[in-house]
């Protein structure tokens, strides 16, 4: 089976985008001064070529194109916008393997997992295509001869800035809601993995009138900062770290511009004494998203095991963790890829050292693999620390690497206080057969997304987002689309 699919995968060179420039106003542009930066494959260390390095004037030109296209696009009837989005979804689905391979070589995640990403992107685009007529307003009966209506209007230029862990999925899926609502978009893909956004523009850019969909690339955070500084941008949606979210919000203050922020997490998996130890062991591993080296905002990297089942769960973890062995991302059989960059690799190894130094026990992994074929890439084995306490650094910081911390608990109130002690609150996974405990805990945890006897999965249409410093706003649902609209109230009085 896997051989047959591997045979269908195109050669890596053939999936690289030919265009490496900036895409705006429906055309490809060189960056000012023909500046560029090099992008590398984190699995092999090999160069994947040059990509345009946008300067401030280039960013301004791309925003100008999006701004100029807004009146035309916002006037396109909703069902026509939906038709174009469905066409986009079809193109994404038809090219899922090619796009997945491109992401695999550029960001290090395994190709098989990235096919899933492309299909999720497609499903989300279809969701928003189906929601275009739900951009409804309301009316208030104000009496005879009067009509009071509230209408929803698109905002204008929406900027979407994304991180490296799901490059294509974020490029494709995150444009759907703003476009469905009649906004134009500018995307800024991650500096570590910019290629799939360029390929998206190659494949689908001409579906839209010029200026409706635009892409700018760059190797530094400045590019994102220039976007945020431009007063013509009506809303910024950022997926990234808490620090970047704070910067975007701060820099949006002068313009009094709304922001949509999907930021980091240090999420808890909580297992009660009645939970099935094998199911919890499996969930511990699944919740870490080891396929993409734990580089997922929703990863449940703090595992709170009740003392009664602590040892029984750990006794079953090895069996499940075996499913994840670091391998070359472009190989169909690979179940766990490479970290996205040297910075992520160094950061992960640093936290592993810190965990050891602070007295936690390495239960699994804890080092790069010994495989010679992986020596040039940024690979780290799936790592589990036991004997972790809540005051340890590895129990507090988002590592964004394949490192899971296991904590033992006895008293529910103490455990919940520890779960809620951090400034972030994105997801939580609760394992119990006791309905009361499940509901009590789901209510008590200060997060935006809770699973009971499930983990890791997202559900198209269900609101995803964080509380506290994990973000502002919700995505993957109708509220995401409505967040790219504003309400206008119109009161009419008719003669006679
Ligand atoms: N909540 C979610 O849905 C979600 C999903 C994926 C990743 N994340 C988070 O992303 C982080 C990992 O990604 P990262 O290290 O690439 O994040 P990052 O914050 O360093 O970068 C993310 C993006 O923001 C840009 N950026 C950085 N600083 C900026 C600024 N001051 N102004 C404008 N743009 C700026 C970067 O260029 C990049 O495109 C983790 O914290 C992770 O939890 C969150």
From TrEMBL:
Keywords: Oxidoreductase. The keyword Transcription regulation does not apply. The active site is at 262. The keyword Oxidoreductase applies. One of its GO terms (molecular function) is oxidoreductase activity, acting on the aldehyde or oxo group of donors, NAD or NADP as acceptor. Residues 28-490 form the Aldehyde dehydrogenase domain. InterPro entries: Ald_DH/histidinol_DH, Ald_DH_C, Ald_DH_CS_GLU, Ald_DH_N, Aldehyde_DH_dom. Belongs to the aldehyde dehydrogenase family. PANTHER family: ALDEHYDE DEHYDROGENASE-RELATED. This is Aldehyde dehydrogenase. It comes from Pseudooceanicola lipolyticus. The lineage of its organism: Bacteria, Pseudomonadati, Pseudomonadota, Alphaproteobacteria, Rhodobacterales.
């Amino acid at each position: 089976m896997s051989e047959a699919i591997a045979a269908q995968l195109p050669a890596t060179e053939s999936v690289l985008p030919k265009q490496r420039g900036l895409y705006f106003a429906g055309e490809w542009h060189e960056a000012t001064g023909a500046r560029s930066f090099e992008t590398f494959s984190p699995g092999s260390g090999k160069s994947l070529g040059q990509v345009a390095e946008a300067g401030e004037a280039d960013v301004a030109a791309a925003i100008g194109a999006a701004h100029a296209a807004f009146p035309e696009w916002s006037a396109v009837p909703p069902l026509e916008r939906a038709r174009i989005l469905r066409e986009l979804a079809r193109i994404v689905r038809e090219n899922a393997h090619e796009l997945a391979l491109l992401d695999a070589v550029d960001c290090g995640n395994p190709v098989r997992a990235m096919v899933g990403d492309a299909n999720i992107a497609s499903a989300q685009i279809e969701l928003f295509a189906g929601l275009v007529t739900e951009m409804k307003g309301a009316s208030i009966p104000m009496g005879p001869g009067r009509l009071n209506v509230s209408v929803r209007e698109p905002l204008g230029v929406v900027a979407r800035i994304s991180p490296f862990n799901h490059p294509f999925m974020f490029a494709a899926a995150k444009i759907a809601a703003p476009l469905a609502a009649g906004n134009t978009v500018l995307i800024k893909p991650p500096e570590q993995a910019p290629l799939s956004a360029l390929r998206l523009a190659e494949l689908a850019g001409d579906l839209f009138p010029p200026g409706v969909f635009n892409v700018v690339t760059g190797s530094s955070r400045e590019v994102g900062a220039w976007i945020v500084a431009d007063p013509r941008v009506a809303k910024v949606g950022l997926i990234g770290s808490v620090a970047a979210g704070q910067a975007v919000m701060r820099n949006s203050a002068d313009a009094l511009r709304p922001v949509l922020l999907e930021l980091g997490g240090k999420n808890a998996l909580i297992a009660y004494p009645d939970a099935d130890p094998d199911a919890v062991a499996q969930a511990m591993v699944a919740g870490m998203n080891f396929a993409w080296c734990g580089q997922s905002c929703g990863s449940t990297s703090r595992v709170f095991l009740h003392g009664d089942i602590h040892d029984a769960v750990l006794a079953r973890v090895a069996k499940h963790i075996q499913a994840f062995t670091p391998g070359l991302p472009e190989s169909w059989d690979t179940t766990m890829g490479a970290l996205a960059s040297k910075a992520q690799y160094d950061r992960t190894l640093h936290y592993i050292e810190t965990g050891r130094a602070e007295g936690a026990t390495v239960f699994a992994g804890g080092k790069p693999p010994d495989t010679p074929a992986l020596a040039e890439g940024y690979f780290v084995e799936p790592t589990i620390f036991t004997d972790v306490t809540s005051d340890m650094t590895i129990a507090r910081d988002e590592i964004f690497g394949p490192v899971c911390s296991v904590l033992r608990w006895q008293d529910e109130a103490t455990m919940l206080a520890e779960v809620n002690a951090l400034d972030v609150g994105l997801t939580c996974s609760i394992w119990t057969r006791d309905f009361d405990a499940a509901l009590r805990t789901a209510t008590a945890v200060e997060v935006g997304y809770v699973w009971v006897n499930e983990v890791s999965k997202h559900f198209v249409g269900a609101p995803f987002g964080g509380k506290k410093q994990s973000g502002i706003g919700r995505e993957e649902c109708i509220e995401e689309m409505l967040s790219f609209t504003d309400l206008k109230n119109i009161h009419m009085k008719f003669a006679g």
